[in-house]
Amino acid sequence: xxxxxxxxxxxxxxxxxxxxxxxxxxxxxxxxxxxxxxxxxxxxxxxxxxxxxxxxxxxxxxxxxxxxxxxxxxxxxxxxxxxxxxxxxxxxxxxxxxxxxxxxxxxxxxx
Length: 111
Known about the structure:
434 Repressor (Amino-terminal Domain); 2 domains; single chain; about 70% helix; 7 helices
């Protein structure tokens, strides 16, 4: 079974962001540095207690480390697209005019 690549990438990134070596991170977590290497190389997911320690140390959520977070911007855009797809051509034109006016007021005329 393939490990969680996102987890591996994010542990590496957070370690670098916090200027920690593998040895330093292992010491902070009270584990052997080979375990961290398994996380970073194989994407092996630690036990829940260790995952929570990582989250606390890096000040991130477990969903972030595991790659489970939802991209809110994509969700919002998808929601708008679903609503617009249900409009008839006349109402779609009205919606477009409303969006143009709102963008002009808020952002100074983004097209």
